[in-house]
Design goal:
387 residues, alpha/beta, Aminopeptidase, Alpha-Beta Plaits, eight-stranded mixed β-sheet, 16 strands, 35% helix, 24% strand
Length: 387
Amino acid sequence: MPILNRAAELQSEVAEWRRHLHTRPELLFAVEDTAAFVAAKLTEFGVDEIVTGIGRTGVVGIIRGSRGAGRTIGLRADMDALPMTETTGKAWASTVPGKMHACGHDGHTAMLLGAAKHLAETRNFAGSVAVIFQPAEEGGGGGNEMVKDGMMERFSIAEVYGMHNMPGMPVGSFGTRSGPIMASTDEFSVTIKGRGGHAAQPHRTIDPIMIGAQVVTNLQTIAARTVDPLSSIVVSVTKFNAGFAHNVIPEQAVLAGTVRTLKTELRALAESRIRDIATNIAGAYGAGAEVRYVRNYPVTVNHAAEAAHAADAARAIAGEAAVDPAIEPMMGGEDFSYMLLSRPGAFVFIGNGDSAGLHNPNYDFNDEAIPHGISYWVRLAEMRLAA
């Protein structure tokens, strides 16, 4: 079955919404204008119940079907942008300095609004659809805030589904998988405390730069020599700050980075090894080491049955050949993981075509994907809430 005729008809209108949102990006929980735009559209569509302020600035709309009582499923889109300067030169480029929709959340929000409009017009299902518009995916954990705010219980959500565009995947294609699909996103910092002095007299110092360099090198053994080669883990040092003059060995050096894994149990192992490596190497040279390890987003783990349902819905509008039900997981993170810890559900990727990559200043959501995304959400709702 191809994309819905109504979704194709809505494409230009939804693209206008998307481009409007693109010109006015907002960060983290400060998405008041975006949330107001969403709530106004849901009101215009005749959505039965609209609740704002969930998870601080999230919006939930409830659309009741015409086929009687039944379960409620949740469909989620994220609303926030990134603190980046856009370089696309598009007519609808960001008008806010230092902020842009570099991950396509404007497209996600617009597609779910398009689906909400169609579902409110047709109501061809039993039970209810909760359309969830979430703030602060980009580092703020807005998904967790909505869950902690009681969203699942308040609206009796039985299953929850998410979607993200993927540059490099053809428009009209989908991918998902059972089990881990995106990684956890932990962060660490190590402060090496040595003894500063004149660079011409290194023997009178305890050089934190030399020690820090050895820590950086040895952190790579976590993936290479500690974790099973068949397991996925990334330990990346992304900052190394020390020193202020050519002829001074500083008192301390600070390095920091991220740990990504697809196995929850490896998070504790990585933290333990980072602490051991940093403190033991520093101690061997008479220095001290302070390690800070922060567990951020959990592994995004699709539930098996719901991943199969998501793939079935994608096949219904894209065909067998355009759906990969065992797509390779990626090491990026996603706070939809919190919703999947709270309820059964699944996360899918939708093709964005040959665009710049995510979090790139030249990225733009591909409006050609809009009818495919709308059709997927509608088919998924109707298939999961069939009378």
